Amino acid sequence: MHSPGAQALFTKLGKTKDFIKQGREKLEQTIKASGSRLCSYAERIAVLMDHSRSPEHNDQSSSPSDNINLGPFANPNAKPTDFDFLKVIGKGSFGKVLLSKHKSDGRFYAIKVLQKKSILKKKEQNHIMAERNVLLKNVKHPFLVGLHYSFQTKEKLYFVLDYVNGGELFFHLQRERCFREPRARFYAAEMASAVGYLHSLNIIYRDLKPENILLDSQGHIVLTDFGLCKEGMEPEETTSTFCGTPEYLAPEVLQKQPYDRTVDWWCLGAVLYEMLFGLPPFYSRDMSQMYENILHKPLQIQGTKTIAACDILQGLLHKDQKKRLGAKTDFLEIKNHMFFAPINWDDLYNKKITPPFDPNVAGPADLRHFDPEFTQETVPNSLIQTPDLATSSSSATNAFLGFSYAPNDDD
């Protein structure tokens, strides 16, 4: 039993978590709507809405009719009518994620269905390109979601992905408020392994947050959603695009300074802090204040955490990216930190370490770890009755040339 004081704290944290969940989807809209007001707080915040100097943003602002080559063309071995769409299990800016079952072999997949019109309207073709290309490189890593097929119809894009049903890390944090240190260390180690692998491919992730971290049926993490990834990032290379999720933005991103791979290690520190304490490290309900906290407020660590935990948080959340943990030797520096001393990294990679939490799912149809807000939604008829494949004469199809992917028969 918790003491009355502890119970009151958990209740307060729970309400705050609910607030975060409700407000997070509106934060980026608020940034745009409040740009002029934010400027009055600090000159550095004024650059948040200034995309004019960003080469990446200029690329994304090309005409919606521009053809974007999303990779090598392949005649797809899958189409919408090959699947039964069973349940909505997630939603995003451009569409839905559905639990689906292949009609011929009975295998379950998570199919991400995106609306072309929405993507073209917001000029996000390049982000879809990044996600599709990164997904093709992820099939070899145990903690990154894998792509099985991609195909398109006249109105939609389809990613056929690994289906995992242990729930979002955010879902479990909402329910349990925070984790004990061994459990947080285990998840952070698997995250670090996945991010380190992306860095080895010269990819920075840029959006590590609890909503993008899933648990599989055994309790291992699976990193998903690669729409904000930046490819071609050599160790010393920098970029400057303002992107990410407000609570997890590194100071250099907020300041619109050139940034490198260490933004991912800042995000790892922010997620680790949230796992240990229940909230992101510089969180405030006032967004302007939260940005000021990220830029200027010293990191506060309360409670009885180990020296190793305090030290790695201080290292990962260092406001100077050149002094941040991981700035020198990237993942090697992270894995050698004393906080991860109990981790055998080879065993971790090979999933020989028993996860600290068992989702205890009964099978693929067990949806207990998904938000009922999604699972109670009716599967759209447009998915069930959709035409099989796009024709090449469609302008929307031309905007996504080469999107289709199917593995080789010997894969």
From TrEMBL:
Which InterPro entries does the UniProt record give? AGC-kinase_C, Kinase-like_dom_sf, Pkinase_C, Prot_kinase_dom, Protein_kinase_ATP_BS, Ser/Thr_kinase_AS
The record's listing under PROSITE patterns reads: AGC_KINASE_CTER, PROTEIN_KINASE_ATP, PROTEIN_KINASE_DOM, PROTEIN_KINASE_ST
Keyword Nucleotide-binding attributed: yes
The chain positions of domain Protein kinase read 83-340
Pfam families in UniProt: Pkinase, Pkinase_C
- Which residue range or ranges hold the AGC-kinase C-terminal domain? 341-411
Q: SUPFAM superfamilies attached here?
A: Protein kinase-like (PK-like)
The protein's UniProt keywords, in alphabetical order, are: ATP-binding, Kinase, Nucleotide-binding, Phosphoprotein, Serine/threonine-protein kinase, Transferase
**Binding-site positions, ATP:** K121
Region Disordered, as annotated, extends over: 52-73
Identify the EC number(s): 2.7.11.1
Catalysed reaction(s) here are: L-seryl-[protein] + ATP = O-phospho-L-seryl-[protein] + ADP + H(+); L-threonyl-[protein] + ATP = O-phospho-L-threonyl-[protein] + ADP + H(+)
Which top EC class is named for this enzyme in its record? Answer: transferase
Gene Ontology MF terms: ATP binding; protein serine/threonine kinase activity
The organism's superkingdom is given as: Eukaryota
Would you identify the family this protein belongs to, as annotated? Answer: Belongs to the protein kinase superfamily. AGC Ser/Thr protein kinase family.
Protein name per its UniProtKB record: non-specific serine/threonine protein kinase
